[in-house]
Fold this sequence. Notes:
This protein has helices at about 5-15, 30-35, 45-50, 55-80, 85-100, 105-120, 130-135, 140-170, 180-215, 220-230. By secondary structure, it is mainly α. Helix 4 (about 55-80) runs antiparallel to helix 5 (about 85-100) and helix 8 runs antiparallel to helix 9. It is globular and about 60 Å long. The protein starts with a helix and ends in a 9-residue tail after the last helix.
Amino acid sequence: MPLNNLMKRILVACSLLAFASFADAQSADPFDVHVADLILLQAKSVQTDMGVSKPQEDRMNQFASLHRDKLIAYDKELRAKKQRPDQRVLIEYLGELKKNVFSQLSPGQIKRLREITLQRVGWPSLTDLQVATRVGMTTGQLDAYRNTFKQEAIKIETVKNKALKAALKKYQNVKAKDKAEAERINKEAQIDVAKAERKALPGLIQMERDRDKKLIGLLNSRQVSNFAALKGKKFDPRVK
Length: 240
């Protein structure tokens, strides 16, 4: 489904696990609706795994187009008023889109999307109250889990920012003489940032693995098994 850049930025900033549930999505389990990540439906491999039909895809695309038009209109309004986006409005728009799109899916398809979502998010998804409750975590465990995740997230973000800052350091005092030079400098900076990200990636992956080990250590064997069951059959992204 085509989504514009504004929507993509908001989806990155706002976890879909935090959205309200919609119990009227064809009698689907509210838990499945709450967890299932709308943006994953853009992947053809996900649609294939879920058994999404062409008519279903067409109807969902219609809702996505309407949503895109609303975002474009909202963006124009904000530009005219020189205002920043209101997160509450954007979340409301996304909630409406999620409700409309999910109305075209069967409960089984939404359940499968929930499974794929949990596989994609992994252990951090247990910071969500509903997921933690379904797994059987206590309030104390959830608090400890969230605190551990937050501490590790800060460490990971610090490493990312350090790599980004180092890549852009040489551009701090650079002033372009004209538009053409500004575009050239911008392209060079993007290349340097991409190189820095690739260089930092192995270390970041290891940090995430270490984080996951700490998170898993806060759970008992039954909770680990319950989470594995919630993730369902392993999703193969290579199938299209």
